[in-house]
Amino acid sequence: MVLFAGIMIYAASDLPYRGDPDNLMHAEESITGTTVMGNYFIKNAYRDARTPNMVTVVLGDYRSIDTFGEQVVIYTAGLITLLVLRRSRRRSE
Amino acid sequence: MIWELELVIYLFLAVSAIVALEVRDLLVAVVMMTVFSFLMALLFVAMGAIDVGFTEAVIGAGVTGILFVLVVFQTSRKSND
Amino acid sequence: MIESHLPAYIALTFVLFSVLIPAFGLWRSELSQPLAVIGSGIAAAFSVYGFLSYLNDGALRYFFGGWEPPVGIEFVYDGLSGFFVMVINVVAFFVLIHSHHIGKREFPGKEMPYYALAMLMMLGFNGMILTGDLFNLYVFLEIASLSGYALIAIGEKPAPYAAFRYLIIGTAGGTLYLLGVGFMYTVTGTLNIIDMAAMLPELYANNAVFAALILMIVGIGVKAALFPMHGWLPDSYTYAASSSSALIAPIGTKVAAYILFRIILWLFGIEITDAVAPITTIIGIFAAIGILYGSIMAIAQSELKRMLAYSSISQIGYIIMGLSLANPWGFAGAMLHVLNHAVMKACLFMISGQMRLKEGHSDITKFDDSYRKKYPWTMAAFTIAAISMIGLPPLAGFFSKWYLVLGTIDNSNWLFLAVILISSLLNAVYFFRILEKVYMRNPFKGQKEASDATRDESPLSMMIPTGILAIGLIVIGFANAVIVSVLLGIYPL
Amino acid sequence: MRDQFQSPIVLLGARLLSPYIMVFGWYVIFHGHYSPGGGFQGGALLAASLLLIRVAGGSKLAELQIQEFATTPLAVIGVVIYFATGLVAMIMGGYFLDYAQLPIPGMEADWLRYTGILIIEVGIGLAVMAILVMIYDNMARGEDYG
Amino acid sequence: MGDFFMGHYAYWFTIILLCIGLYGILFKKNLIKKTIGLAILQISVVLYFVSVASKTGDATVTVIDANFPVDQVANYLNPLPHTLMLTAIVVGVATLGVAFTLLIAIYNRFNTLDEKELIDKFQ
């Protein structure tokens, strides 16, 4: 655990300043020239889906397979309670 | 980003997390866990993530709290550490 | 048309059947198992077809929602993912056929959620392999591991406790992985693997990247049962129902190993991985310790399933060792060993399930030579799989170890070479112990004579999958040159 | 939950509060485009309104509201809504979950996406509600082992 | 130095919370305590993601307002980590549900939730 704390502090010492708008994740263009996701979403969310809430657009459209997986996770959890705790009564018995 | 507010919430978060882990009565631990979730939701809103704060308040503090209480009632309430 | 949608079809088949099974299962519970077999059969057919068309046409990228990769999420169907998807789907198909009678005996009345969760677990594993997005990988990882915990929790009396320990360790690992993804996202600003791999050479001096690498390796290593993080595995595999352990043992750790391959070789690349500290060497040393530890612990066990579980720890060590060698021969050996070990372990766990069905136990000390008369075909399949596990030619297990040995010689890494040879001897010790009990005359007095026993073979629905996998081992052994030539084409450097 | 003594005041409060939470849950689902919220939060609120009655009034009263065997089909329906939306888009010639390909006449691509997001949010809401209630029910009845 | 502190104090507190959660997982013997530690660990990771999404200056929440043009991205917070964390929270709840299910099953069979007693009952 001390090791874990050490690694974390080591990592945090080199993370970019929090909230710095010049951060790479907030930048206009990445160092290899591809689109940066965060800004693309801010600029195009309303144009693409006519929805003011960007989080909803990202959740429901751009990264919809994530959301689908999330729904499947919840569905899995429900089935697990069914599997571990319940035993269906057979009619034949 | 009101950093004084955030600092206060951080301190409360740490305290409630330690209390939730150290207290012997599990029901108290569960209540402290709910307090932890709610403070966390407050912190998310203070950081501007209203969606995440809303979700954390509803799911983390609400539904998880109910399920935690249910588990404590279904099993034992005492803890040895 | 069908080729361009293939990655999505493979995953969506499992979603479709995981929804269909509850829909039909509420009405007639006994339909669940055939539906699961059909679902995994379709997916296996898709994945075999996909791998063949990959050999002709090359890699394929599938954009969900029609958004281009840095913005949207993609599925990448290249050689490595195609190979893994093919292996796990085909093995799962046979295991699900085999589970018909086990299901009736070990978890009666729970078929519907059981097979739905088996489908969901396969969805998770396929998604983990195919996805090209780090956060999406986390989501699929959680699907697969949640259903894995549930499948383990079904079984003997201590099974839920074993599953709970796995849950705590596995979820902590998943959370550490997510933290690693967070570091990577903060530094690079993207989540797509291909996009990120292009950026990393300019950022490799960053501390956060190094910490993210360690967090990811630890998080995934928990799932892969890499040596110091293997504590959950023996209990889980021993207490779980036989069909669960037959389904999870060949597939689960392999998929985690795949993620390690993907992260180290494709995302970071060897140079960046070793830039700050010699990560690959450290992983290799842990893998070597794991190989020896697993083999020695397996000798000490008297329960067949627990012995196989420890043997799994040792075999996953071979695969990770092939990764740490980081040369084409080691890579090919590791890939071939993924295929072999999936088939061998599935075969062996299926046989232990048959023993539990017929005898009511799988305790090695109670094995005697009457088994040879009672279950001739089962024991023949067991012999083939065991010999292949030890690594005698011309069976499949020999060739993967051979290529690993070539890899160590190529790196002139004599320590690993010695480890591979020693562990082969240890493997021989613990498998020949069983073979001796079954085929030699029993030295104890008062035991049943072999001639007394009548033939009492397992049902056909169990015998056919086991037999096919055992024959498959021989075929892989003879066809190894072809497979390796394909695998060498996948190697990224 | 084990037999606790029942307090009429708590039950009255829960019964008074529950419909409003439910209405708010539906509002959150359908208004997720314009304000924070969406399928998960709305579904969790719906589930909370049902769980409130279950906690306060015990399982007998709750059976009147939504019966236990109904939760699994509801969950399946929720997943199917999402899955079918994606599949229809795929059959119409797009990628999976490409809402711009949905076969609704007279709509531009952006409004189609708007509609598609709404459909899947309803699916998510249903599934989350049904499953949280299902988890509670199964846990409250304990395990029938042995 | 003050600049460095302002840029990093959120990370340090997140690390403290992560360590508290990890301590609960590793050293607590009661299984419900372990579950609480797991929940703390998960929520702390969410906190990390949310704190890196923030921007200094007058950036507002992620709902588009006509007063703030979307052309200037500094007007809005980064929506992507928020979205990811919605998913992660729900995944965390699903994990906790499964953990509770297993806890009830364990208590039903062994009548205890203490790790030492459980290991004693195995032998």
Output the radius of gyration of chain B: 14 Å
Low-confidence spans of chain B? none
Please trace the helix and strand order of chain D, writing H or E for each element: HHHH
3D shape of chain D: elongated
Structural class of chain B: mainly alpha
Q: Give the number of DSSP strands of chain B.
A: 0
- The overall pLDDT average of chain D reads 82
The coarse silhouette of chain B is flat
Portion in helices of chain B: over 70%
Count of discrete structural domains of chain B: 1
Largest sheet of chain D: none
Structural class of chain D: mainly alpha
Give the strand tally of chain D. Answer: 0
Biggest sheet architecture of chain B: none
Write the layout of secondary structure elements.
The complex is a heteropentamer of chains A (93), B (81), C (493), D (146) and E (123).
Chain A: H1 2-12, H2 37-49, H3 54-62, H4 64-85
Helix pairs in contact in A: 2-3, 3-4
Chain B: H1 3-22, H2 26-46, H3 50-74
Chain D: H1 8-30, H2 39-65, H3 71-91, H4 109-141
Helix pairs in contact in D: 1-2, 2-4, 3-4
What does this structure look like?
The complex is a heteropentamer of chains A (93), B (81), C (493), D (146) and E (123). By secondary structure, chain A is mainly alpha-helical. Chain A has a domain at 2-62. Chain A contains four helices and no strands. Chain A has helices spanning 2-12, 37-49, 54-62, 64-85. In chain A, helix 2 (37-49) crosses helix 3 (54-62) and helix 3 (54-62) packs across helix 4. Chain A is flat. Chain B is an all-alpha fold and 81 residues long. Chain B has one domain. Chain B is built from three helices and no strands. In chain B, helix 1 (3-22) runs antiparallel to helix 2 and helix 2 runs antiparallel to helix 3. In chain B, 51% of the residues are buried. The mean pLDDT of chain B is 87. By secondary structure, chain C is mainly α. Chain C has a domain at 292-493. Chain C is 76% helix and 2% strand. In chain C, strands 1-2 form a two-stranded antiparallel ribbon. The longest helix of chain C has 32 residues, at 242-273. The model of chain C has no long low-confidence stretch (mean pLDDT 85). Chain E contains four helices and no strands. The longest helix of chain E is centred in the C-terminal third of the chain and has 32 residues, at 79-110. The model of chain E has no long low-confidence stretch (mean pLDDT 83). The chains are: A mainly alpha (93), B mainly alpha (81), C mainly alpha (493), D mainly alpha (146), E mainly alpha (123).
